[in-house]
Design a protein that fits this description.
By secondary structure, the protein is α+β, with helices and mostly antiparallel strands. The chain is 27% helix and 27% strand. The protein has 16 helices and 30 strands. The strands form eight sheets. Strands 3, 7, 8, 9, 10, 11, 12, 20 and 23 form a nine-stranded mixed β-sheet that branches. Helix 1 crosses helix 12 and helix 2 crosses helix 12. The longest helix has 21 residues. The chain is globular and about 95 Å long. The relative contact order is 0.14. The chain binds one RNA strand through strand 14 and helix 14.
Length: 569
RNA sequence: CGGGGUGUAGCUCAGCCUGGUAGAGCACUACGUUCGGGACGUAGGAGUCGCAGGUUCAAAUCCUGUCACCCCGACCA
């Protein structure tokens, strides 16, 4: 492409509401423009990258044997009523009516539609397993769309759905998708991790998320330095500390702690470290009462783990101040296990403490020297907390590190949730009707683009991984408008690069050198060739990779071969 | 959903408190100078001041309503 023919400009300033790097750079580079909250137009430059991501995904899905199809974005309400999600889904589902007053939704996902196809078309176990996928727009009416295309309302997603006669086949299909995803993100040139994930309300046996590692990621992931264990923080198990609990050494003593409502204040008032304190959290029970959850002072509650405990309401809700008072007679800030009458769960780390500090269920009072078994019953120990860096890996090998990640893919063994609800069955080899097992596998295509930028940028702009750069090489002729010889050389080089399939972008604008340099860096094109009168007289051009600190001189005649060698290196 | 904030030129913003001819920088157009790291000069085009209603001789400015957008919160024991 010739930049003089490209009408959409790069920007020096961006709207004040663009907060994250990828959003700012995508606006500045002229990749996207906002249409409405969470909805973006992909401009020609951005679309080139998006298409490259799509192509890699498509190639690897095809290679894994998946079959591409395309389902409508708009879906009839009946299907959603049949699966039960019309009522479950809530306001994220964009609903509307057509002129005949029939209800529809803009699809946030396509389990219902594909299950409908499967039950109509699939008759025999001989047609299984099969995996259908599409790359297509979704709409989720997010509470708070933000960060540009990272959390948009309308976005492009690759969604795949597999159908199987039994669980073993599902597990095999799932494994193949795991491998395909690994190839996809490797080819995209991204640093990523597959992590164990919460299968949440959808249920099923297994679920993994694929995260692009970036400090700006919204998710915390835990991984072991001793083996390949990796999990979303909300799923990362913590182990009970080794060894037996120490015997009580101190007497139980009630101490006045006026105003010490938080662990930090308590530690200051009593001059004890937070690891010697426990905090007591009351959450709503599923029977209308409250349940006490007890953690060591320096640990955080893990809501996903907590809401799975028997007796705890799901989703997890902290008990309101009034219920706290009714259950304990005390105010939040002074709660403790001693004298508490309800159900108590204790995190492993808190359960192995001796002579700890806890609230006395009385305003401005705490206990010191508290001990399980002596002052209160033996603890019912569970894993309740978030893992922290340095915890031993739950596999027993290595210790956990915590990193930030951007979730770009998610694979699920759905089981029979939808096939049951929608009666999708085939005949097995005995002639019996069996409900199909399903898996589903998503990749946020538009989010991948943003995540790639979050992971690959510097102060001057984007630094594209080669596989998804909109152009491979940018040609920057200086004095293109005035020097006929230089223009001829630049045009010839441009044609040579095109002929070589190296996707050149020619900056033939009548602009100053600084402007061209700055824009070439902003756009993040991997290879840059600068053509100037001085070098040209000696038959030389300058080559510089986007990651290089300094340019190298290359003979004009060898420029194409040089870039080709660099791009396959 | 709760709390806070913002709507003025394509973009970033000033002007509003204290009502009186709508501004700056960037971007854009033309010409000239400049020309290997985001140039300069001159001239110019461009805004129903989000929308509706009200107060007033007079509203971007004050009042009411409305729409749009943004930020924060949903771990506190």
């Amino acid at each position: 492409m010739r930049l003089s023919q490209y009408p959409i400009l790069t920007l020096k300033e961006v709207p004040a509401d663009a907060e994250v790097v990828s959003h700012r750079l995508m606006l500045r580079a002229g990749m996207i423009r906002r249409l409405a909250a969470g909805m973006y137009t992909w401009l020609p430059l951005g679309l080139r990258t998006l298409r490259k991501v799509e192509r890699i995904i498509r190639e690897e899905m095809d290679r894994a044997g998946a079959l591409e199809l395309s389902m409508p974005t708009v879906q009839p309400a009946e299907l959603w009523q049949e699966s039960g999600r019309w009522n479950q889904f809530g306001p994220e589902l964009l609903r509307f009516k057509d002129r005949h007053d029939r209800e529809f939704a803009y699809g946030p996902t396509h389990e219902e539609v594909i299950t409908d196809i499967a039950r109509r078309e699939l008759r025999s176990h001989k047609q299984l397993p099969v995996n259908f996928y599409q790359i297509q727009s979704k709409f989720r009416d997010e509470i708070r769309p933000r960060f540009g295309v990272m959390r948009a309302r309308e976005f492009l997603m690759k969604d795949a759905y597999s159908f199987h006669v039994d669980e073993a086949s599902l597990a095999e299909g799932y494994r193949q998708m795991h491998d395909a995803y690994t190839r996809i993100f490797t080819r995209l040139g991204l640093k990523f991790r597959a992590v164990q994930a919460d299968s949440g309300s959808i249920g099923g046996n297994a679920s993994q998320e694929f995260h692009v590692l970036a400090d700006s990621g919204e998710d915390a992931i835990a991984f072991s330095d001793g083996d390949d264990y990796a999990a979303n923080l909300e799923m990362a198990a913590t182990l009970a500390p080794p060894g037996a609990r120490a015997a009580p050494a101190l007497p139980l003593t009630k101490v006045a702690t006026p105003g010490a409502r938080t662990i930090a204040e308590l530690c200051r008032v009593l001059d004890v470290p937070p690891e010697r304190c426990v905090k007591t959290l009351l959450v709503d029970g599923d029977d209308g009462g409250v349940v006490a959850l007890i953690l060591r002072g320096d640990h955080e509650l893990n809501a996903v783990k907590a809401q799975k405990l028997p007796g705890v309401a799901s989703p997890l809700r902290m008990a309101g101040a009034e219920r706290v008072r009714a259950a304990t007679g005390a105010e939040p800030g002074y709660l403790g296990p001693i004298g508490f009458g309800g159900k108590i769960y204790v995190d492993h780390a808190a359960a192995c403490l001796a002579d700890f500090v806890c609230g006395a269920n009385e305003k401005d009072q705490h206990f010191t020297g508290a001990n399980w078994g002596r002052d209160v019953g033996p603890p019912e120990a569970r894993d309740l907390r978030n893992a922290i860096a340095g915890d031993p890996s739950p596999t027993g090998r290595g210790t956990l590190q915590i990193a930030r990640g951007i979730e770009v893919g998610h694979i699920f063994q759905l089981g029979r949730k939808y096939s049951d609800a929608m009666n999708a069955a085939v005949l097995d080899d005995q002639g019996r009707s069996v409900t199909m097992y399903m898996g589903c596998y998503g990749i946020g295509v538009t989010r991948v683009v943003a995540a790639a930028i979050e992971q690959n940028h510097d102060a001057n702009g984007i630094v594209w991984p080669q596989a998804i750069a909109p152009f491979q090489v940018v040609l920057v002729p200086l004095n293109y408008q005035k020097s006929e010889a230089l223009r001829a050389a630049a045009d010839a080089l441009y044609r040579d690069f095109e002929a070589a399939g190296l996707e050149p972008l020619l900056d033939d604008r009548d602009a100053r050198a600084g402007v061209k340099f700055a824009d070439s860096e902003l756009l993040g094109i991997p290879h840059r060739i600068v053509i100037g009168d001085r070098g040209l007289a000696a038959g030389l051009v300058e080559y510089r990779h986007r990651r290089d600190a300094a340019p190298t001189e290359v003979p004009l005649a060898e420029a194409v071969a040089f870039v080709r060698a660099k791009s396959t290196a």
